[in-house]
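Question: I have long wanted to understand how a fold can be written as C-alpha cells. Here is the record:
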Amino acid sequence: MALILNDDERALQESVRRFVADRSPLTKLRELMDSGAAYDADLWKQMSAQLGLAGLIIPAAHDGAEAGYSALSVALTELGAGLVASPLLAGALAAGTLLRLGDESAQADLLPGLASGELIVSLAALAADGAVTASGDALTGELAPVLNGAQAGVLLVPAVRDGQPVIFAVNADAAGLSVTALPSTDPSRALAAVRLEHTPGRALAGDAAGALAFAASLADLALASEQVGAMAACLEMTTEYAQIRIAFGRPIGAFQGVKHKLADIATARELAHALVRDAARAADERPADFPAAAAAARVMTSAPYFEAASATIRLHGGIGFTWEHDAHLYYKNAMAGEVLFGTPDEQLDRLAAALAGG
C-alpha cells in the first residue's frame, strides 16, 4: 500500500497550496458570503487554466490532464484546507460518472468543456431511487440537494425508466426544468433543488447502475480528501494558538487537557490521511478494492473532522465562538459535510455492504 506522494503529486500539492495561500485566503470565502455568490468565477478560471484542476481525471483525448484520481485527491485536500469554494467537486463527480458510463458521444460533448472549466456539469443524485421517473426521454421528479445545481450548464439526472436506471443529460435551459438555490450551513458549498416536469433529456448509454455506484465511492473519496485537509488546518491553527495563549503564566498548550486533545486530533488526522491515500490509489490501481477503501476513508474522516472542528472552537476559548474568528467556518463545513452524500449511519451501511462484497 503506497501512501507516500510521488514527485508529480508533491509538485501538484505544493502548487495548489501556494495558490490557496496567495489567491484564496479565508477572507475570500467571507467576501463570497457577503456577496451571495456561489464561487469566484475569476478564481475558478485560474484554477482551471493555470493549475488544470478541472481536468485532472479527464483523459488527454478530451483535453484533460489524465493525472488520475490520486492527483484529484491531492488537490482536493489542499483546497479543503483553505475551504475554497468552487465547482470542482461537482465537476469531478460528473466527469467520473461519464468516464465510468462509457458513452463516447456524451464524453466527446461534455468532457472538453469540463476539462477547461468553462462548462459546469453536476451529477444531480448518486442513485436512481425513483425520485425521478422517465417516460421515453421526458423526466419528472424532484432532487435535492444538488451540488452547484444553479450554476450547472448541464445536469446528469439519474432516473428510472421501465424499471431500469438510466442517466440523462439535461440542459439548464430545458423546458420544464426549474432550479432553486438552497441556503447552506456551509458557505463554501453551493446547493440547489431541482424540479423536472416532463423535461426533455438525453438518455446516456452504458451501465447506469455501475456508474452511479462508482460515483458514490468517488464522492466518499473526494469529500474525505477535502476533510483531511480541513482537519490539518484546524490542527495547525489550534496548535499555534495553544503556544501563544497564556493562562496561569504558561501557554495553554502546556496543560494536559489541551495537549491530549491536540494529540487526539493529530492521530485521527494521520489515520484518515492514510485511508484517503489508500482509497485514491485503489481508484487508480485496484478498482475492485475502491468501494470498500473509499467507504472506510469517509467513515474514518467525517466524524473525526467534526470533532476536530468542534475542539478547535472550544480550545480557542472566548474568541473561538466569534464571527470574526475562522473556527466557525470549519465547524459549519464539518457539520454539513458529515451528512452530505449520506448520514453517518448510511456511510456505515455503505462500508458494511462494500466489505461484504455487496
